[in-house]
Each structure stands twice: as structure tokens, then as C-alpha cells.
Amino acid sequence: MKDDEPWVLDDPGKLKALAHPMRRAMLRHLGLHGPATSTTLGSLLDAKTGTTSYHLRQLEKYGFIEEIPERSAGRERWWRKTETGDIRLPHPAQLAPEDRPVLAEFHRIGLEEDKGILLELLPAAYQADPAWVKVSRALGRMTLGELEDFFEEYMLLLKKYSHRAADAPEQARPLHIRLLALPADLPAPDV
């Protein structure tokens, strides 16, 4: 996979690897704070080292993390997040029917994470440092082709202005960035 090519998670194994809350928390930690051991992650996530080691091996198996051999010694293994770039989800039709619930679980976990960002982290971040918080809400009208073009241009902008952790300037901060686009003319669900 070249850096500029999207990585579509149409392999059920890769999708399952990321459809687990602990693995997602580990990836988030490694992405934000850099390398860690299973012991460190276990302490942070209130999990046993054996559990974190298992989940780290699953993430490694599918290329989301890698061991840092020069830092590892004996039983202590250090892990870092790989630069996976543009990860995309498959359309449900690209998956076998028995694998579609994994995609649904992936979305459910992601929406729970996003809800936490919107309800808890966004207000706290805005109060702490409003210059670093940018929010835009809009209603647009597009054809399906225009929406697809818009999304691809958005991804190009994200790539243009984002730095890899290793290459980021000292003043660069990690940012939660979300693009939410969905039909506004759907009936509201019963709550």
C-alpha cells in the first residue's frame, strides 16, 4: 500500500481487530503519547498484562502497530502505532453477510467515542484553549457524486495539513477531526 492510497478495511480480520474497545484505546494511546509496553497500557486501561499482550499481538498481526526492537529487551516489548494513513471502511455489500455485524459494531464503538468527544471533550477543550477549537455546522445540498468528490477533497486537505508524529513541528498538537455528513431529510428516529 502506498502512502497516498486509502487502506480499505475489507478484510474481516482487520475490521475485527479494530472493532474492539480495548484495542481502539491502545491505538489511541500509542497515537497520542507514542510508544508503550503492554505493562504500561495495562496499567492505563486497568487490564492484566496478558490481556494487553494478546490485544497488542492482534493489532500487530494486521499491521496497525509494530514492535520497536531496539527498545525491547527480554520480556519487555515496546510497541508503536504504524503510520497507516487513510483508513476507510468498506461498504456493507463488500463484506460477506456474516461479517457485516462486525462493521456495525465498528460503527457503534466509533459513534460512542465521537459522542464522548462531542459531549465531554469539546466543551472542556473549548474552555481550556478556545483558539484550538474549530467547529462548523452547515446544511449543504449535493448529488451523490458531488458528496463523493467533496469527501475526497476533504481527505486531500487532511493529508496536506496533517503531520506524521515523527515529522510534526514542535508546536503541532494532536487533534480530533471529524467530518459528519448524512442526509438531513431522513425521518427522526423514535427515542
UniProtKB/TrEMBL annotation:
Top-rank lineage group of the source organism: Bacteria
Transmembrane feature ranges: none
Domain (HTH arsR-type) ranges: 13-98
Any Pfam family: HTH_20
Name recorded for this polypeptide: ArsR/SmtB family transcription factor
Upper classification of the organism: Bacteria, Bacillati, Actinomycetota, Actinomycetes, Streptosporangiales
